[in-house]
Write a structure and sequence with these properties.
Blueprint (H helix, E strand, L loop, with lengths): L5 H7 L10 H16 L14 H7 L8 H13 L5 H14 L14 E3 L3 E4 L2 E4 L6 E5 L6 H12 L6 E5 L3 H14 L4 H7 L9 H17 L5 E6 L7 H14 E12 L9 H10 L7 E8 L1 H7 L3 E10 L1
Parallel strand pairs: 4-5, 4-6, 6-7
Antiparallel strand pairs: 1-2, 2-3, 7-9, 8-9
Helix pairs in contact: 2-4, 2-5, 5-7, 6-7, 9-10, 10-11
């Protein structure tokens, strides 16, 4: 595994029994399970048939997401993935493995429910007209489907317009790196470096709370104001925590420009361990957003979600608030 001391990594995340696994198992079972963990449920449906207790324990009986590999690697990525070392090295490699054009995940291209176009934003295909071209898009709880925003940026570029700056606020290095690889795969080799050098892509790996607090502090220090974003998308709350999302929502009114919009999309009827749309919008109202948002409803269906929860369709609720 180039650039990764696999034995040190296995020990670091508490999977010492797999430290000396053979190459076929590493490629066929471990890497998909690891990526399912790092993706935090996005590709839970990817799962082969296993025949023994060890495989079920390590890789999950129904989905990779319930196995020890996925759980331990996600925990390690969140707890210490920002520190140089085996966990960070592995996340870099896993992002390359996931993004390989001819790899096993090449068909994993589920689109975001929110898309950015020249004249409008669409939310579950419902158009919302924009008064002007957006310059900066922040996304709370970015995940693998966030690669859609890279495609949207490229559409701006192909029309001869300057693309909006896209800044995903993720909580693992893997997500950021997987999104970055999309540039080289979609635009051409070297595109990632070009987009990052020109600050058209500003990836963050430290979560929503830390990212927004630093944006406020640094922008205020250097320019005297921190209202820099045209759009904040909060459609990936399941990839963060209540504390993280709440802090980001409280900071959103400071970061958005006058007339900027906050898009909230989550479940309409959350279970006890989920963050629903109404909770998120309540945090927004408490932080000063006016209670006059545009609302959309839709249903959500995902094979991965069905396998993990047993629920076929869920009602989603979107609310768009204007600063």
């Amino acid at each position: 595994m180039p650039g990764v001391n696999f034995q040190a990594f296995a020990e670091e995340v508490g999977l010492s029994e797999v430290a000396n696994m053979d190459r076929d198992e590493l490629a066929g079972y471990f890497m998909p399970a690891a990526i399912a963990g790092l993706a935090d449920g996005d590709i839970a449906a990817l799962h082969p048939t296993f025949s023994d207790e060890r495989e079920n324990r390590l890789y999950g009986k129904i989905s990779f997401g319930e196995g020890e590999v996925a759980k331990k690697i996600l925990a390690a990525a969140i707890n210490n993935g920002l520190k140089p070392g085996p966990v960070q090295d592995f996340q870099n490699f896993a992002a390359e493995y996931f993004s390989a054009p001819n790899g096993p995940f090449a068909t994993a291209k589920e689109s975001s429910s929110v898309r950015i176009y020249h004249e409008a934003i669409t939310i579950d295909d419902n158009p919302l007209v924009l008064p002007k071209l957006p310059e900066l898009i922040l996304e709370y709880g970015a995940c693998l489907v966030s690669r859609s925003f890279v495609y949207d940026q490229v559409t701006f570029l192909m029309r001869g317009d300057r693309p909006f700056v896209y800044s995903p606020l993720a909580r693992t290095r893997f997500t950021n790196r997987a999104i970055m690889h999309t540039y080289d795969n979609q635009v051409g080799s070297g595109s990632t470096q070009s987009f990052t050098e020109n600050q058209l892509y500003i990836g963050r790996e430290d979560g929503v709370k830390a990212s927004t607090e630093e944006i406020i502090e640094m922008q205020t220090k250097h320019t005297g104001r921190c209202d820099i974003a045209d759009v904040i998308v909060c459609a990936g709350a399941q990839h963060s925590t209540s504390e993280d999302i709440k802090a980001g929502i409280e900071n959103a009114s400071k970061i958005l420009k006058a007339g900027g919009i906050l898009i909230v999309r989550s479940v309409a009827k959350p279970s006890s361990n989920e963050i629903g749309t109404d909770q998120i919008t309540d945090w927004a109202y408490e932080s000063g957003f006016p209670e006059n948002g545009v609302q959309f409803s839709s249903t959500y269906q995902s094979l991965g979600h069905l396998i993990l929860t047993g629920i076929d369709r869920r009602l989603m609720k979107s609310v768009v608030l204007t600063r």
